[in-house]
Structures are given as C-alpha cells and as structure tokens.
C-alpha cells in the first residue's frame, strides 16, 4: 500500500460533493468535495506499490488543458487500470453537476 | 412481452451496490445516510496491515421510510473485503440497531432491514470484528421484540460466519436464487472435510446445499424471490405485516431433526436435507 499526493492549479470554485466506485478488485473509490481556493488536491491510497509515475502521468493527461475546479479528491484504489480510473473520475465530476 | 422487453424492464437488485440497494428499497426520496463516506469513519486496522480502507468501511446505514413506516437500513458492501465485518462497520450496524431500540422505547416504532452480503468476521480485525458481530446479534434480538428485523440475502457473496447466525436471528429472512447462507463458507468446508466430500469449485453442488432456493425449501428462509428490485421490495413489505416464524426459539425441534441422522450420518444430498428439515410437513 502506498499513499501519493498530487496538486494541480484550479481556476473554478469547488462546489457539491460526490462519491463513486468501491474499493473492490480492479476498482477504486473516488470522493470529491470542495477544497482550497486555487488548487485541486488529490490524495491516492493505492494497493499497488511503485505506481507513482503511472498516477502522475495519468492525472497529467486527464487534467491538462482543462479549467479545473478547486476540489479535494480522495482516492482509495484497489488495483484499477488507468481506463477505470479515468471513467470513475469523469463520473465523479459529472455527479457533482447532478446535485 | 418479448424477451428483449422483459430484459429491459428488469431491474436487477444483485447488480446494485450496497448504497443503491438501500436507496432502492426505501420509499422514494426518504433515504438519509448516517455516518456517510464523507465522515470518513474508516478502519484504523487495515492500513496498518497494508490494506486500502474504504471511506464507509463497507457499511451503509440509512434512515428512511418503508411504505410510510420509519425504518433503518444497514447495507453491507460485498465488494469491499468480501463484506467482512470489522470494528467500525460492525459498530455502525450495532449502533443503528441500538438507536432503533431506543426509538421504539420512546414511542417511535422503527423497524430494521439488514442487507447481508458478508463472509463474516474480518480476519484482519479478529476479536474486534467478533465482538461487533456479538453486539449486532444482541441488537437484533432486542429490536425484534419491538418491531420486525428483516434480513435480506440477495447474493452474490451470500452470508456466512457469525453473520449467518445474525441472519438466523432476524424476524424474517428473504433470499434470492443467487443467495447463499451457511456458517462455514465452501472453501473452509473443503479444507476441513476434503475435496472428495465437499468440492468448493463445484458451483451447482454448493448452491444445491447452501443456495437460496434450498434454504427456503428447508424452511430456513421465509421468502424466496427473483432478483428484481420491485419484487424484493414487494416481498419485504409483505413480510413486515406477517408474524415472525420465530426460528431461533425452535432450537429443540431442529436439534431433534439433526439427532435423527445418528452418529454414523451418511453423506446427504440436497433432497435428503430438504426431507430432514421439512419433517412432518412433507
């Protein structure tokens, strides 16, 4: 198990919160809630050791060129593939919009 | 109705996560979660053992209404650590049952629904999980003296270990075909009895003994329904209005049936087990 922290610049205010996914095999749990103004904070607790570079690349690719909201994201990962991570994060952001 | 239409109208309950299950059973718009994931009441023991925790520790507690009646639902997420009962998740269920007892004492009739999807105690939390299960069992026994406590085993994890005893203590038990109910899980029995006697990989064999259909036919469950949200809710409401079978008080009868097998008990098949449990009712 490994805990990783990432930070990205945010421009929009964070609002609402959402929870998607589950800490089951090949899946992950994503909690999104309003965070500190001007930044998007992500904490990843993952069962896969040595995966820091992969998470870094994945989040860079996901967030580059987007106007990000100032939210705090908590991820509990149980071996999700990059595709599943992307789907869950998109789902989490979309569910905030539904509130 | 064509097969395709039927398939599209069907809403599977088994495929829902624990939170969605609780929401689907309660009256529309009445679901209110207590100690939700954003409260982050997580297992302090799993990370110390290098295991990723879940924000709600795999247990969802919700207050709401069931056909207008006050109800508390405890739903176990079978996907997280096999639905195992740890200190936190177990205390959430026990606490919910105890608060429901208090409400009943204060003149607010509150029933409970337990969505059981669990392999039993969380081995990483050992005695703390076992203590929590004991508290859950005590909570069920006390609450069922006031209002019905209904256990639902939908599958596909099933309900095993100490939590199978909790299931047996409920006022009513509802199962689907996907459900399984047993004290020891198949792998444990195989390990102890040998693969010749009990092959945990033989799914039809396993379900023929511990599956929902068999447990219902043996009188160990009160309702057997198809995996469908509406059907399960309908059945649940029906059970709410019925007197309890009070199985837990009939231990003498069950012991007498089991004693009939004698010391040199033969290897039974599913039909023989049904015959044994059905007794004179056959």
From TrEMBL, chain A:
Domain of life the protein comes from: Bacteria
In-chain residues carrying the UniProt-annotated modification O-(phosphoribosyl dephospho-coenzyme A)serine: 25
Pfam families recorded: ACP
Post-translational modification: Covalently binds the prosthetic group of malonate decarboxylase.
UniProt KW Phosphoprotein keyword: yes
Localisation: Cytoplasm
Similarity-based family: Belongs to the MdcC family.
Name the record gives this protein: Malonate decarboxylase acyl carrier protein
Lineage of the organism: Bacteria, Pseudomonadati, Pseudomonadota, Gammaproteobacteria, Pseudomonadales
Gene: mdcC
């Amino acid at each position: 198990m490994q805990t990783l922290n990432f930070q990205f610049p945010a421009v929009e205010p964070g609002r609402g919160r959402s929870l998607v996914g589950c800490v089951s095999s090949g899946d992950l749990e994503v909690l999104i809630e309003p965070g500190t103004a001007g930044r998007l904070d992500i904490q990843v607790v993952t069962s896969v050791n040595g995966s820091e570079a992969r998470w870094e690349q994945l989040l860079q690719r996901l967030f580059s060129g987007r106007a990000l909201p100032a939210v705090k994201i908590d991820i509990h990962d149980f071996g999700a593939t990059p595709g599943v991570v992307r789907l869950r994060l998109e789902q989490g952001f979309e569910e905030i919009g539904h509130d | 109705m064509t097969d395709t239409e039927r398939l599209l109208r069907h809403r599977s309950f088994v495929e829902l996560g624990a939170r969605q299950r609780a929401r689907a059973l309660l009256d529309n718009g009445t679901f209110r979660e207590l100690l939700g994931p954003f409260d982050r009441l997580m297992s302090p023991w799993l990370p110390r053992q290098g295991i990723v925790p879940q924000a709600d520790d795999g247990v969802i507690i919700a207050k709401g209404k069931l056909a207008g009646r006050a109800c508390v639902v405890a739903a176990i997420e079978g996907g997280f650590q096999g639905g195992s009962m740890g200190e936190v998740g177990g205390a959430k269920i026990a606490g919910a049952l105890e608060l429901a007892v208090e409400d009943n004492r204060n003149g607010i009739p509150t029933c409970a629904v337990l969505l059981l999807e669990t392999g039993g105690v969380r081995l990483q939390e050992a005695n703390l999980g076992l203590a929590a299960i004991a508290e859950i069992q005590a909570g069920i026994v006390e609450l069922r003296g006031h209002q019905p406590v209904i256990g639902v085993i939908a599958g596909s994890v099933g309900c095993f270990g100490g939590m199978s005893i909790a299931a047996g203590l409920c006022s009513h038990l509802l199962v689907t075909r996907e459900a399984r109910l047993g004290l020891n899980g198949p792998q444990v029995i195989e390990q102890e009895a040998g693969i010749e006697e009990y092959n945990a990989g033989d799914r039809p064999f396993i379900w023929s003994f511990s599956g929902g259909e068999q447990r219902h036919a043996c009188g160990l469950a009160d309702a057997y329904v198809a995996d469908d949200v509406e059907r399960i809710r309908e059945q649940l409401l029906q059970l709410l209005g019925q007197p309890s079978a009070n199985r837990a008080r009939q231990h003498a009868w069950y012991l007498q049936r089991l004693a009939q097998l004698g010391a040199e008990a033969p290897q039974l098949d599913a039909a023989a087990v049904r015959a044994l449990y059905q007794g004179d009712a056959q």
